[in-house]
Design brief:
The structure holds 2 protein chains of 2 kinds. Chain A is of the alpha/beta class. Helices cover 39% and strands 13% of the residues of chain A. The radius of gyration of chain B is 25 Å and the shape is globular. Classes of the chains: A alpha/beta, B alpha/beta.
Chain lengths: 616, 572
Amino acid sequence: MSRMQIVTPNAAQLTVERLYKDMERRIVASPPGLCPVDLQLSFLRLCHSQTCGKCVPCRVGLGQLQRLIESVLEGNARMSVIDLIRNTAEDIMNSADCAIGYEAARMVLNGLKGFEEEYIHHIKYGKCSVHITQSVPCVALCPAGVDIPGYVALVKDGRYADAVRLIRKDNPFPTACAFVCEKPCEARCRRNLLDSSVNIRGLKRMAVDNARADKVPVPRKAESTGKKVAVIGGGPGGLSAAYYLELMGHHAVVLEEKSKLGGMLRYGIPNYRFPRERLQEDIDAILSTGVEVKLNTKVGNGEGEIPFGKLREEYDAVYISIGAQTDKKIGIEGEDAQGVISAVEMLRRIGDDDMPDIKGKTVVIVGGGNVAMDCTRSALRMGAKKVCVAYRRRREDMTALPEEIEGAIAEGAELYDLRAPKKIEADEKGRVSALWAQPQIIGQIDDWGRAMVYAADLPPVRIPCDVVIVAVGQGIQTRHFEEEGIAVKRGTIAAMEDSEVRDMQGVFAGGDCVTGPATVIRAIAAGKVAAANIDEYLGYHHVIPCEVEIPPVNFDDKEPCGRIQMRETEASERKRNFLPYEQCMTKEEACREASRCLRCDKFGYVKLKGGKPAIW
Amino acid sequence: MNRKTVNIIIDGVRVRVPEGTTIMRAAKKAGVEIPHLCYLEGVNEISACKVCVVEIAGKSKLVTACNSPAEDGMVIYTNSPKARRVRRTNVQLLLSQHDCNCPTCAKSGSCKLQSLSNDLGILDVPYEKDIARAPWDKNFPLIRDSAKCVKCMRCVQVCDKMQNVHVWDTCNTGARTTVDVADNKSIAESDCVLCGQCIAYCPTGALSERNDLDKIYEALDNPGVVTVVQVAPAVRAAWGEALGLPREKSSEGHMVAALKKIGFDYVFDTSFSADLTIMEEAAELVQRLSGKEEHRWPMFTSCCPGWVDFVAARYPRYLTSLSTAKSPQQMFGAVAKSYFAAKTGISAEKICSIAVMPCVSKKREATKLMMDSAGAGRDVDIVITTREFIRLIRSMYIYPERLEPKPFDSPLGESAGAGVIFGVTGGVAEAALRTAYAIIEGKNPEKGSFAEVRGQEGRKEAQFKIGGKVLKVCSVNGLSNARKLLDDIEAGVNTYDFVEVMACPGGCVGGGGQPFSDDRDKSKMRGDKLYALDEKREKHCSHENPEIIKLYEEFFGSPLGEKAQRLLHVKY
């Protein structure tokens, strides 16, 4: 007999490997709104099947925990069971040999910590407090609740203008979102159960490229109510609110402090990601409803400014959507040196075609979010000699979209991770000469799963540079509003969930200025919520209908099929200019991609409860 | 616009149907029956049970017929080996979670799951039993047995869509998903008005009315008790269905004969007290019309307890708009234990007053405040549904078709046509108008004068000229229509003088206590039977009923008089 053998996996092992992959994707596609206790039990079963069976706590204990949780779910447990579960899990955690056991127990404990009320509810009432109200995953996860399966089906049928109309029912920025949406809709796409999520944003791009937003007429407006609403801030949130208010028959007047509309879509996102002329298409469509715009108009007590109090007198309601436009500082020595600029300022100047001169210079960007990546890639396009990103944590901890980071690296940016900025060094003329950074070491994972960093036992490093761009977040200009009596909490305007400002009749606020810097689609959603609630406040109940008939489902078999990505201009080419680099799908690709949609709007629970309402 | 049509072949039969027609409906047109369970046309088309699966040529996955539109050129096999096997498996899976104690189930014989399983020839289930048992308040008139629930969601949909009351909802997720009272309430705390429509459409025995037959047997068996039974108008239109009686053998006379055979001492007619209700309600309407500004209009009928409960729970500000007249059931009880007792010399305490009703809500109505006005316990002691009545007949092995028809007893047995049409939507309004007209005009209206308020539509409106004034009248059936009506009245969209509301679609003939039927047109058929009886009656107006005339002469004096107020009216 041979002494050793080469091990090759047999069919069963290979199949199990594939099943593991299936399970991973299934977890990704887990629909929102499940009973957490039920899930806990299912996870525990999986854990238990992984036990080798040697140690008592893991072999027997995990099984007994299942029985206990089962009794909770069956509604025949007493309140004392919770303590028994906790104690048992702690004992397993403290005595199991290996991670298979103690980590399984830890998951149970974390569950008890995170949703003990759910356990209690089951024990008390014999049922779950969770209630499924919406389970088309993409629609549920889109903050604006856009009818995604609907427009995907329309794109499949080549009905692009109808797709734009349908998107507009919930989101008047179809073009902006086709280019820059963070696409939360794709995160739990049920298609993940088969292969991977549908390229939803790509299909929206197909719609707006083939039916330009400014060429698709907006719906008919309701009869004029004679009411006037002031919207402070002409960004995506303010313009969305204005659009819906106009459709409802109220007159919206947008006050914008800058010389052009668009807010962060114009002054925060560089042209190569979202070309200005395409932004104009959305804006033109919105303005075609009759929205009145006052540019270069600031709300405040200064000269030539309109005081907030006056607006309240002159208008029937006011919507504050000023966004988060001011820069934040790192708070280190030398930050006032010449050559240190904030991301907000840099992007604003690019937006106004007033490019800072950094040709041939070495640039360091501080930060790890999408704005940092925008600055990085813009700097490359502006002809910088070298562009590096200094970030306190690791690449995988960055909040920027992975494709943005990849794009930046492909275009030649250097990534210095685990480098915490310590001070900025200036030359004798006060010009930046280097960024000093303290190397970090990665450490424990915190309660939210984020790895913490600590200063490593190493000396600071010097990163020579001519320009430092600070992209560590944005703040909100709340002062004037605070003086006018609006509550400000942790630097943001305190508005309620329905966007009303407490104790301020007829004043509403939403978007970045309430939530802190977030995404375009969340600002749009806030504008929509505000429009609906302002309408109610004014004593109306207008609905925003959409007469587009959505194509029926077909009965084609759903076989696994790869996801189609949009092509990009090659890195060496695109980094030379600010032209958009992402290319729309072909018709053939869009059809194939759209037919991957499983039509969760027609299959599953929504059949019972009707799913998303066709009007709002 | 001309709708496009599609051509399909179902089990070899070629049919052409309008685009968008479901395979289920197309199959019906082709004469092909596709078995189904959860499907309820227009109400529940959610393909939950997956029993109606069919195979489509060229597709590997089966399609549910109930909610999939037929596409042009489809070749459909409803009975292919694959469809047959899947259908069978799904029924077996349902059976694994169903408490199959058919011999002791009230639904046995009319259970859709039972007949489906029998039809498919399922003689064994290879899966282990997994029965959910949840506690329930057995004293409540509506009973839910979780062990029999197949989660078809019909009850949720019927309550949401047909009645707009939203008592039921899904609860839990995953394998534990089931149906329960919404918002973590108990059924008693909920706004359930006991219309019983969920029971009527439950395919299994999961929902039923509280069984009160034991109380009936006890009363019948007690020699010291005089049993006095009343039968609601709608019962006679439906009782024969479940017993398989031909029309001529399910007459009022056969029904009375069966009740006598059961052993009730006196068999009376709720149509009699319906005439009495009209006397009071019409007088009240005429009185309110004379002092128009003192009242909140319109005046609503109050004989449907489901409707009254609905107003109390959801629109309490309209309670004072309800007629104060008691329902025929309760008027009957009050009269039986006062006038009838005095007239016959039977002590009211010895009388057991029993009602046979098409309704579940009547069980609760009998226990309400002020429903003991005769001073001898409850005016109505026991209420059973039409279905319980049928069970009672069967339990005694009575074959009505073999009995000689008998008339109702006197003095509470005679009725005018007006009292009979009380059981159908529009009937109460029509009956009241006949008498109100006579009070104001001094003569009876012409036959068929108020027929415009008849019909199956949710809301019917009409204007009648009485006494030189125009009276705007409306009749509504089904609570979702009632809600819409109240909202419209509130918004000032509509104004009416007199409105009749019945909680159940089609009125009492479609009541939640009637024999089971998935056929939503059934209530029209039953209603027509009542109109036919009206035609045949000698008298058509309540005030012409000789027994009613006598009752006022001998006992009440006049409508709305002191005695009538005490026994026949309530305060809201």
